[in-house]
Amino acid sequence: MKAAILLGTLKEKGISNTAVLAEFAVSYLKKENIDCEIVRLAEHDISRGTYIEAAPDDFPSIYEKIVQSDIILFATPIWWNSHSSEIQRIIERLDEVYDIINEGKPSPLDGKLGGIIITGDSDGAEHVTGNIANFFCTLGITVPAYCSLGVIWEGHAKNKKQTKANLLKYYRKEYGQDAEAMAKSFAKLSGSLK
Fold first, then answer.
1. Which residues of 66-104 are buried (b: 16+ CB within 10 A; e: fewer)?
2. Helix (H) / strand (E) containing 43
3. FRET partner for 116 with CA separation of 20 to 30 A, picked from 7, 16, 57, 88?
């Protein structure tokens, strides 16, 4: 099994709460023999638009990673009760998949599994999870039980400047069971779909 994790941190480089949580989740996914690739969206040129080939940019190669994966995870920080602008741009570029479905053709993403990784410092995880899960379901992506790993913690506030070691220590202590449940759910359902 293969998972594509689309990392929606706004930071092109350096420590990011969401990047560290994504890496934390990967450590559990690998225990279930799920091969993972994290695509840090801020490092790529992704133009505005609602088509896969909207412009000569990096999105077509990212789309190919999505198509080749069994599991698609959107990893996002919460900004003003919503997912990041990096994730929104991916949603907009995937609108063409919805056009394909509306034409009566099968979705190129049908049968894939979807999940959400979220970081924030106060609230909004349920809202973001609901929006992304709705988007996945509309494109034919199955959203299994325990597919959301959301960490809302005051230590994520942008003025806290956490180290990677501190973040991982907190995630291991408080969210290891959740990450394990996510990985096992993906492994179980992916096996049954195949």
1. beebbbbbbbbbbeeeebbebbebbbebbebbeebbeee
2. none
3. 57
Domain boundaries, the chain: 2-193
Rounded CA separation 116/75 (Å): 6
Residue 152 contacts residue 171 (beta carbons within 8 Å): no
Torsion of CA 74, 34, 147, 114, to 10 degrees: 50
Q: Report strand pairing: 148-152 vs 113-120.
A: parallel
Structure tokens at 50: 């609602």
CA angle 100, 91, 142 (to 5 degrees): 70
Structure tokens that stand for 133 in this block: 């899960």
pTM for this model (two decimals)? 0.95
pLDDT in tens, 122-168: 888 999 999 999 999 999 999 999 999 999 999 999 888 899 999 99
Determine the topology of domain 2-193 in CATH. Rossmann fold (3.40.50)
> Rounded to whole angstroms, what are the CA distances from 173 to 3, 112, 162, 166, 178?
24, 30, 16, 11, 11
